[in-house]
Design brief:
There is one protein chain. The protein is mainly beta. It has one helix and nine strands. An eight-stranded antiparallel β-barrel has the order 1-2-3-5-6-7-8-9. The longest helix has 22 residues.
Length: about 190
């Protein structure tokens, strides 16, 4: 009987004593992982340069897209944009009316900072001497985006359009540097 009483007292000390000791331990909260998944819409401004005439100028436009975050840090997405320009060459005279693209994005998230590469299809329209010409291009780029809070982010991006003689004269290309802001709808 004595052995049963000692075993019961030991069991009671383990069962009821351990939670009291654990209650005195400090509690550490894990920082929640920022999630880039969801739809977004945004606007951008910047500078563009077209090599056919070495013309450059102000650009402005908007973008919309969707991201999906997986494996904790990797982000894959798709984005479409349209960019108006004031790029013109007065000696020809010609101007670039717009650039547009649909691109995939693959990025690496470091919390609220997203570093990404992007690539896909693009197009541009050039008007000169009363004639408008539209050409297809492949587009590659790099970007950095920072989430200010759950819904708003800011970003900087570089895009290279390569036209490969398919509607625009020569092997035309364009370079775009832009900054922008996105509103994220999230989950």
């Amino acid at each position: 009987m004595k052995k049963i009483a000692i075993a019961a007292a030991a069991l009671a000390a383990i069962v009821f004593g351990a939670p009291a000791k654990a209650a005195d331990m400090p509690i550490y909260k894990a920082e929640p992982v920022f999630n880039w998944s969801g739809f977004y819409i945004g606007a951008h401004v910047g500078w563009g340069r077209e090599n056919g005439s070495d013309a450059s100028g102000f650009i402005y436009g908007g973008q919309l897209g969707y991201n999906w975050q997986f494996n904790r840090n990797w982000v894959v997405g798709i984005e479409a944009d349209i960019t108006g320009t004031d790029i013109s060459e007065p000696t020809i005279p010609a101007r670039v009316d717009y650039f547009a693209s649909v691109r995939g994005r693959l990025g690496y998230s470091m919390g609220r900072t997203l570093v990404y590469g992007t690539g896909g299809w693009g197009t541009a329209q050039v008007t000169g001497a009363g004639v408008s010409v539209t050409g297809d291009a492949w587009v590659l780029g790099l970007g950095l985006e920072y989430a200010l809070n759950h819904n708003w982010s800011v970003r900087g991006e570089y895009l290279h359009y390569e036209f490969d003689d398919n509607g625009l004269p020569g092997n035309a290309y364009a370079q775009i540097f832009r900054v922008g802001a996105n509103y994220r709808f999230g989950w």
